[in-house]
């Protein structure tokens, strides 16, 4: 069983490297190794050499090893949770870093358990045809800083299950969490099958342009996703791009504000709003607008914000100073445009850490920057509507479509509204809840490709039809 101190020591550079800062205290935790193109070439060569033997083990043995990796994560879960909390900022408790460490284990086990058997697609007098899936080969994965260990697992678990080797680059803001995850699971994986290379944007660009990768997976901004699609086009790797979102929620006039307030709040403010599929703009029928805003303010008042390692904290700091400035700027614009602060705003701009208070803003029109630009932080605009068609049109107006939600006491009516929204996932009376067996992916500027469940396994494999 690892301790936080031993895990941190195992993944930090002995000398040099990139400083990693605790976003709650501005303290330097340590220095992450900084890898370059020569390291990439060595990792690619090792992965290419290891991949055929890994694939030849078969699904049963690879699944056994993934379960053993999950066991190793469980033994070190508390140490991993503390490292994620110190590096990324999310609290240990609630839907925080202990939740993230538990998700790592759960997704490893789900990838191991998901069946993907060959399917007979033709059986008649003309012959027989069977559709199956085999490894794509070498997978390159580039991850984000908001859920570093969990998203890394979403990428590596299905890829390994299907017999691929993986080379992964974490965000330069949260490399230690992913290095720690790799150090834990590599205790049971063959050498060369999984390699994590921390580095900057130049390393990521080298990966996406490298012809050795048969598949690229990326979670991050739409702008970077477009750059990856362009830079990789010359060698046509398969792509899974989970890109930016600006998820809408629509509250119908028959909803109960008190009953939905807690789920609405956590749909928006999980990980202090730093989640791709968080609720980021809320359209509420004018008859309930004030009641919903007040109910959310009550939940906010009861949800403490503080350093992630404080057991009382339920919300933490923003991970980077740059994200703090984005949120602060959008809220200041909203105030200047006549927006009303129900709660929040007014951060301590000179204090330690990137703490921005939980903020609710009303009185904005549907085109305000805080509404139409992804804030990725703890500031939620609440927009009143009178006509449902108008609310649906506003929900669909942006060139993103990761998630959305509809809130109502009538589930069947909510499902009818949900079917009109342009998003990869639409939740009813909840928002942003993911399950390892339920496919997840975006439309429009939120990317393409599916993760999780059997569809996620197919996305890191190549189909093969055998005809007799």
How is this fold's topology laid out?
Layout: H1 4-11, E1 18-21, E2 28-32, H2 37-56, H3 58-75, H4 77-88, H5 97-113, E3 119-124, E4 127-135, E5 138-142, H6 148-161, E6 165-169, H7 175-185, E7 194-196, H8 201-209, E8 215-219, H9 222-231, E9 238-242, E10 247-251, H10 257-269, E11 279-285, H11 289-301, H12 321-336, E12 340-343, E13 359-362, H13 369-372, E14 379-385, H14 388-396, E15 400-401, E16 403-407, H15 411-418, E17 425-428, E18 443-444, E19 447-448, H16 453-459, E20 461-467
Helix pairs in contact: 1-4, 1-7, 3-5, 4-5, 4-7, 5-6, 10-11
Family: Belongs to the aldehyde dehydrogenase family.
Active site: 242
Domain Aldehyde dehydrogenase: 18-460
Please summarize what this structure is.
The chain has helices spanning 4-11, 37-56, 58-75, 77-88, 97-113, 148-161, 175-185, 201-209, 222-231, 257-269, 289-301, 321-336, 369-372, 388-396, 411-418, 453-459, and strands at residues 18-21, 28-32, 119-124, 127-135, 138-142, 165-169, 194-196, 215-219, 238-242, 247-251, 279-285, 340-343, 359-362, 379-385, 400-401, 403-407, 425-428, 443-444, 447-448, 461-467. By secondary structure, the protein is of the alpha/beta class. The chain is globular.
């Amino acid at each position: 069983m690892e301790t936080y101190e031993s895990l941190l020591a195992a993944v930090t550079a002995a000398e040099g490297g990139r400083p990693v800062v605790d976003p709650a205290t501005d303290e330097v935790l340590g220095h992450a190794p900084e890898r370059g193109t020569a390291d990439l070439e060595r990792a690619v060569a090792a992965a290419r050499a290891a991949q055929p033997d890994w694939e030849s083990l078969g699904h049963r043995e690879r699944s056994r090893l993934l379960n053993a990796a999950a066991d190793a994560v469980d033994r070190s879960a508390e140490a991993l949770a503390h490292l994620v909390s110190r590096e990324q900022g999310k609290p240990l408790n609630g839907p925080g870093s202990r939740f993230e460490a538990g998700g790592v284990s759960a997704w490893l086990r789900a990838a191991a358990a998901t069946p993907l058997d060959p399917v007979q697609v033709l059986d008649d007098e003309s012959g027989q045809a069977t559709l199956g899936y085999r490894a794509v080969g070498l997978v390159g994965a580039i991850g984000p800083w908001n859920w570093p260990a969990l998203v890394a697992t979403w990428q590596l678990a299905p890829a390994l299950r299907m017999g691929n080797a993986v080379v992964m680059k974490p965000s330069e803001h949260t490399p230690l969490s992913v290095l720690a995850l790799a150090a834990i699971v590599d205790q049971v994986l063959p050498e060369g099958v999984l390699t994590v290379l921390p580095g900057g944007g130049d390393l990521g660009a080298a990966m996406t342009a490298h012809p050795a990768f048969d598949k690229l997976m990326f979670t991050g901004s739409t702008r970077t996703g477009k750059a990856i699609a362009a830079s990789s086009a010359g060698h046509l790797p398969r792509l899974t791009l989970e890109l930016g979102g600006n998820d809408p929620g629509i509250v119908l006039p028959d909803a109960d504000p008190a009953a939905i307030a807690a789920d609405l709040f956590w749909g928006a403010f999980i990980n202090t709003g730093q989640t791709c599929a968080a609720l980021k703009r809320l359209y509420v029928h004018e008859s309930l607008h004030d009641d919903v805003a007040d109910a959310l303010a009550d939940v906010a008042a009861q949800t403490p914000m503080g350093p992630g390692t404080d057991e009382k904290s339920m919300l933490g700091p923003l991970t980077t100073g740059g994200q703090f400035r984005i949120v602060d700027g959008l809220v200041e614009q909203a105030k200047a445009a006549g927006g009303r602060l129900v709660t929040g705003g007014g951060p301590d701009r000179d204090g330690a850490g990137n703490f921005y208070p939980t903020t609710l803003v009303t009185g904005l029109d549907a085109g305000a920057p805080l509404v139409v630009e992804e804030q990725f932080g703890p500031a939620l605009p609440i927009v009143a509507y009178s006509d449902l068609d108008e609310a649906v049109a506003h929900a669909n107006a942006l060139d993103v479509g990761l998630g959305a939600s509809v809130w109502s006491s009538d589930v069947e009516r909510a499902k009818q509204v949900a079917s009109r929204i342009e998003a990869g996932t639409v939740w009813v009376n909840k928002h942003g809840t993911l399950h390892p067996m339920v496919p997840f992916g975006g439309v429009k500027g939120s990317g393409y490709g599916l993760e999780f469940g059997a569809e996620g396994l197919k996305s890191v494999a190549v189909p093969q039809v055998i005809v007799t």
